[in-house]
Amino acid sequence: MPRVLLIEDDRETANEIVAELESRGFDVDWAASGIEGLDRARADEADAMVVDRMLPGIDGLTIIEVVRKEQVTAPVLVLSALGAVDDRVRGLRAGGDDYLTKPFALVELVARIEALLRRPTESRDTTLRVGPLELDLLERTALRGERQIELLPREFRLLEYMMRRKDQLLTRAMLFEEVWNYKFVPRSNLVDVHMGRLRRKIDRPNEQPMIHNVRGEGFVLRAPPPA
Amino acid sequence: MRLRLPDVVRTTTFRWTLAVSGAFAACILLMFGFVYWRTQSYMTASIDRLITEVANVVSAPDAASTARRLADHLKTDPRHVKLGGLFDQDGHRIAGNMESPPANLLPDAVPRFVTVFRVDGPQREEDIARAVARRLPDGSMLVMGHDADELEQFSRIVEDALLLGLVPALCLGLAAGALLSLRAQRRIGEVNRRVQRIVAGDLRERLPAHGTSDPFDELARLVNRMLDDIEALVRSLKGVGDDIAHDLRTPLTRVRIALERGREKAGNLDELRAAADQAIAGLDQSLSIVTALLRIAEIEHSRRLAGFGDVQLAELVREVGELYEPIAEDKDIDFAIDAGGDATVRGDRDLLFEAIANLVDNAVKFTPQGGRVELSMRRVGDEAVVRVGDTGPGIATDERELVGRRFYRAEKSRSHPGLGLGLSLVTAIVKLHGFRFTVSSGPGCVVEITTHQ
After folding, report:
1. Mind listing the domains of chain A with CATH numbers?
2. Residue A225 DSSP label
3. Looking at the complex, does the CB of residue B335 fall below 8 Å from at least one CB of chain A?
4. What is the pTM of this model?
5. Looking at the predicted structure, is the pLDDT value of residue A226 above 50?
6. What is the mean pLDDT of residues B184-202?
7. What number is the ipTM of this complex?
8. Using a CB cutoff of 8 Å and minimum separation of 24, what contacts does A85-92 make?
9. Of A86, A186, A194, the CB nearest to B357
10. Which domain holds residue B419?
């Protein structure tokens, strides 16, 4: 069971996060103040940390900076009510791995923690495989079984990102940030439209679907169950 | 607020004037003292030289000739200043106009001030004089003197001059000080009153300025300009506040209704979920309004150009095009992207992307099915123009100025969902870069961002 250290001073928010994470099978350790959080973070027992940016007594970013200096490598998700671009950059520069602006959907939080915990190792493989799907990173070609799939450059990147994170829930915001490299979503259905196109190319009507739309949450790429 | 004299006396200006007047008076006194001292000693020295000379001339080896010479000397004395006396060893007068030898005058010493009695006038007369004494070989003593009245008169002149000069100067200084501090106090009093009104919330109040170029007026004008800006800001803030209140109320009301209906009417879990989904959608919309407003404020107020770098505009335009192409296609809109030649501008890549994406988003949103949206980037001389044109309803001429304002939605767009914040975001981004933003009409609406190199 992955252990998550949550440093958050607002009791109500913390309770919701703890309940949600525990229901998803995480072992959550909650620190309600910056000082307490810093002590537990230094113990380096967590697999991932969720740190609120603004804590009484000590700044969330300071905690991250301190534990990073002490060689604590567990990935950190920074929570903040400050959405400013500047702030985000500062959070990531301090040693955070991802940044989530309050208020957020719990699904988004869980998806991001999962993503941090299962960060794909930088493999030297030049071919990614998920079920019948095969992506050649050098030749820039995609195959489903015997079928050649024609992909636009952006679709290729989208598929690569999803294949590296198979079986993980990927939210729209995550996809937009990682695949398009932009931090804002002009409208929420932009990602859906692009995903729809990719899906029509990957999942033909007579094939087992691999790209799944999790209603209201995001998308998952899964290998079809063996027939 | 009337100023009474005690108030004036207590002001700093007045105290300074007082101090300066005091110093001034001390200087005058010092100067007069110096002149007095120097002149006095000069005159005394001349008298001393004169009487010593006369004593030398008058002295003769015997008393008789000395008496004769003395009488000759005293004979011509129109100014009534010559004094002289020849006395025998016992101090009895032999000749001259002095009653007796001055008590403290030693023979053959330097001249000094003495008190003598003149006897040549109608009556005996006391005189202060400068005198020198000589012992003659026969034992008699010659005393030559000179009236010191001149010196006294001179010191009286100096005193008079001092009074005539110093007293008016002091009075003038004090009066000027009182007047200046009264004036300053009046103006400051006026400023204080007005500032208090401003602090109390009356932002239309201004400081008094008389259109002169004195520093006080310049300061007042500067403060007034600042107040103009603050007033404009507060007004726009208030306007924005009203708009936010209005635009947040709409989705929040929907949330409330959805939740209320869900609680009262939902018969099963699915219906309750549907109500919750509706409520979440409403909350998301409220949150996106807040987020968008914060972003606009952030961009408008960021003076930082840290995120600036060289941006390949054509590539950026192509990326936006690529992002929206499927959406246009889904809506059966003919989407033409033309980003030929390249232009490199200095700017924040993310923000420029956001601005162009917003324009394209609007164009795609307002263009009806089967319409056409054109996105292009071309160079015109030194400038690059990013142009988004559509075949939508367009924006009426009288509304073009307004579309950049927060929450403003053109009449024809009211039926479309939106926050009314897109174009104010674009305006803020364009302003930050120092670019130009124009709205005009083609078949539908044409918006252009013009950069400068």
Report:
1. 3-117 (3.40.50.2300), 127-221 (1.10.10.10)
2. P
3. no
4. 0.61
5. yes
6. 87
7. 0.80
8. A85/A183, A85/B298, A85/B307, A85/B350, A86/B298, A86/B302, A86/B304, A87/A53, A88/A183, A90/A61, A91/A53, A91/A61
9. A186
10. 309-450
